[in-house]
Amino acid sequence: MKIVVIGGGPAGLGAAGAALGVNPSAKMDVYTEFEDVAYSPCGIPFVHGKEIESFEKLFLATKQQYQDQGINVHYTTSVESIDTRGHTIKVRGGAKVSYDRLVIGSGWNYADTGLDRHGLKGIYEVKNIRRAMEWDKYLDTVKDAVIVECGPIALEMVSALVHRGIKTTVVDPGPWPMAGVVDPDIIAPVRKDWEAAGVTTMWGERVTAFGGNGTLTHVDTTAGRIPAQLAIIGTRKVSNNALAKAAGIELGSTGGIVIDSHMRTSARDVFAAGDCTEIPHGVTNVPLQGLSGSHAYAQGKAAGMNAAGGNREYQPVYVPWAMLAGEWMIGGISFGETSAAAIGIKFVSGVANGITRARYFPGVKPITVKLLADPATHRLIGAQMVGGEGVKERADFLGVAIRAGITIDELANMENVYSPAIGALNEPINMAALEVMKKF
Amino acid sequence: MKIVVIGGGPAGLGAAGAALGVNPSAKMDVYTEFEDVAYSPCGIPFVHGKEIESFEKLFLATKQQYQDQGINVHYTTSVESIDTRGHTIKVRGGAKVSYDRLVIGSGWNYADTGLDRHGLKGIYEVKNIRRAMEWDKYLDTVKDAVIVECGPIALEMVSALVHRGIKTTVVDPGPWPMAGVVDPDIIAPVRKDWEAAGVTTMWGERVTAFGGNGTLTHVDTTAGRIPAQLAIIGTRKVSNNALAKAAGIELGSTGGIVIDSHMRTSARDVFAAGDCTEIPHGVTNVPLQGLSGSHAYAQGKAAGMNAAGGNREYQPVYVPWAMLAGEWMIGGISFGETSAAAIGIKFVSGVANGITRARYFPGVKPITVKLLADPATHRLIGAQMVGGEGVKERADFLGVAIRAGITIDELANMENVYSPAIGALNEPINMAALEVMKKF
């Protein structure tokens, strides 16, 4: 069996590895337009911020290791078209490659800002590691930077720029950073730290033009001109769907490739996974696009297994998420109060301000947990958190809880570990559940 | 309504506070034989180890604060007997105190070693904060110490003694520390660190005599004599059931006070909570005694609410647990392979060696997760972990999962957060579930 994968990110490589797990004798070819596969792009902001010493650290495996696994990676070989009837793809240079099964893992792009870049140097979309290596040198020359919409990667870049001593202005059309995802009370401590660090923020404003002469010198915004030698594009992720679209493969309302529960696209023998697709939300059934690397990887594995003849279901998502935001960790599952209200979901919420260890134990950190529940069924429908440690683990926990249909009552009656060095007498999830219970 | 509480630990104070929450006009009297209430005894080993700078830090509230809450605490006032028919208790000095409802939170003692102490100074049961303050000075004079059975508190004391530069020998009849709770592979890294720190361990051996002249100078063991100016008693917790027993209140097979789902004892209007009771295990229904401070506190709250006229059920326990063990955190839920095998529970297990952040991110720690599942239903029945961070949060997570009847299949399909600074691409719980799945 000849399996072809388009894309060398977590979806594509997850698919390639999992397909060979199911069918070790499959011929496996991966095509990527880039020079590398198997590095961690999520680490890039932290190398820019000098938390991680070098870009080399982000590479996960050598090219030889893929070869040894039976994965034939074609580097800097972009795919130009897919012929779903002929079961072939055309690669750069015009060569046709046939497949029995195709997995599209073409990933995402930053949403277009709609602004003319005038060919100016200094406008940075954080994504590719080789470009990041070059940009890192440029960062040494930058005094003033502007964030053009403050999505998650841009939010991480704010910390990196602060660490580099670069004067930073955030310009975002929303009322606070990542306003579609995070509630204002949850992001508040991050904003306070930004303020203390001298970050300028302009909420409800937009960048209207890039200006300069060869190199960026300023941006114009709805609130005036800002000097900037660097603009970080932080617009939302959109599906890199061009190939699929041209091939007549069905796209959904988000622009993501439509897939079924087995990652099959509308075209026979063509699967898709990762940020190029859209996936239904477990609570609302509304399609989502642009999730995390772990989602892309899990979807890739499911697509690869199925492409190779397996039978792996991929279920609707509840999207546990968490990230570093300056000195804080923020995270949650599914909905916050803002997003639930925006789409008209009825909810009751409760907030608890807890701590992560005994109050007297060194390293104790605050953690705020907000839980949202369905007032009729008492089921958990969302959560938001901000704290100093243990946010990712609690997000994973609540992700499993929401998928399993666990109720607030169950969380209000949960047992919890108490040991001064590692956990407080009162678990904040339990405390928040007790707060919700008061409102039923 | 006149509510009397015996005991000033987490069960007793949890009961007092929760009872007043239900019935703010109740007259609330708490009797304790000790000088203090509302400190964290769990912190004592860490003050001895100098991780925490002073015993004063362990106090949670002032005596005035309890008074202000309407809780009348009678210090150094031991209760001598309970008359369940007359609805009275007799306190030190012979005074009778009547009650409408009584909550017994008399706690635990270390199981008797059966050894004659000959009135020797140097034999330390870590429990009370005032005694700990005195013992801390004695620790400065100690060169050699012996651990007489290595229960959880004694295990924490090993680290404290190492930090104090005291040559320590652990003597335990089991094959490894806490052998009834933790699997050998989980405790292995802790033992390795002990070895590196010069701790001597004698497994499968017993202390047979304490020796000295006024002060301890040595202990005799089944493997010979050990010089020791200090012996730490680390035998298991047993119910401090003397009062209840003398009052004719029913005790169970563990010696713990038998309670129903509403913390009622066999005596009318008498409730009990915490380590003096026994509670059925959620998987086996076998009664357990001697759980954690958070269990005592939760049971106390339930007992207090019910004593005051509320209706709060306390359910069988699945016992998430976790603790610091030297540089490691160990933890789990319900059963490990050793304890499951010992009581004849059928299980399939899977182990994953994961990491807590991206492998290149500063502060990344290893974490091993072992999951046990019922081969017939695929339900989670136990877990064991050892790692450098995130063990308590995962134990809480798995505690809720086991109570909710979540299957390994669900954990194998869980979503997880990936963000380099706070979590790895592969969540170790998910990896361990995938390992179990291979064995079904």
UniProtKB/TrEMBL annotation, chains A, B:
Keywords (A to Z) from UniProt: FAD, Flavoprotein, Oxidoreductase, Redox-active center
Protein name, entry field: CoA-disulfide reductase
Needed cofactors: FAD
InterPro entries per UniProt: FAD-bd_OxRdtase, FAD/NAD-bd_sf, FAD/NAD-binding_dom, FAD/NAD-linked_Rdtase_dimer_sf, Pyr_nucl-diS_OxRdtase_dimer
One Pfam family here: Pyr_redox_dim
Domain of life: Bacteria
Domain Pyridine nucleotide-disulphide oxidoreductase dimerisation, residue spans: 336-414
Keyword flag Oxidoreductase: yes
Source species of the chain: Paraburkholderia elongata
Molecular function via GO: oxidoreductase activity
Residue span, FAD/NAD(P)-binding domain: 1-283
Keyword Oxidoreductase among record annotations: yes
Family: Belongs to the class-III pyridine nucleotide-disulfide oxidoreductase family.
SUPFAM superfamilies reported in the protein's UniProt record: FAD/NAD(P)-binding domain, FAD/NAD-linked reductases, dimerisation (C-terminal) domain
